[in-house]
Design goal:
Oligomer: single chain
Strand order of the largest sheet: 4-3-2-1-5-6
Number of helices: 0
Number of strands: 11
Distance between the termini: 42 Å
Shape: globular
């Protein structure tokens, strides 16, 4: 079964340190604030079983479902070393909307993430904590725009009985 979860960098200090990452499901409030929500107890119906933390919207990234060769989870926005033809190349993990999957963006083009490639990857950082690891001149077709997750919700009024 596929694990669906996200991470985001803490926006306000609450129970977490600023610049710390939290993991769970994204929540976007009506006023536009973005948060990560996670269950911290097995009692799902208990209001105290859930925690919510505001995060920086541009840092919101989804878990790809893949792990690097050290067992570390790989997220959208991570920078990885990928082994190809005996040498390592620096790649950026991005979501490709046209193919609905995660890819490794390299200066020579995209590589698709799949089970056989996991053992050839090593996470070395991410674009939010380590922007200096990526030389955007090496990625001519890549433009990274920090956009919050866009969600459209339609609320239908209840019918009068």
């Amino acid at each position: 079964m596929r694990t669906i979860k996200f991470r985001g960098k803490v926006l306000h200090r609450k129970s977490h340190q600023k610049n710390e990452w939290v993991y769970g499901m994204p929540t976007i409030f009506r006023d536009g604030r973005t948060a990560i929500r996670w269950q911290c107890s097995e009692k799902a119906k208990d209001p105290e079983a859930w925690k919510t933390q505001s995060v920086e919207p541009e840092t919101l990234g989804q878990f790809t479902g893949a792990y690097d060769r050290n067992g570390k989870e790989i997220y959208e926005g991570d920078i990885v070393f990928a082994k190809s033809a005996g040498e390592y190349k620096k790649c950026l993990v991005v979501y490709a909307e046209h193919s609905c999957n995660f890819i490794l963006h390299t200066k020579i083009g995209p590589w698709y993430i799949h089970g056989e490639i996991d053992s050839m990857l090593e996470v070395i950082g991410n674009i939010h904590d380590n922007p200096e690891l990526i030389n955007y001149d090496s990625f001519p077709s890549l433009t990274w725009e920090s956009k919050p997750l866009e969600v459209s919700i339609t609320i239908k009024p209840k019918k009068k009985q």
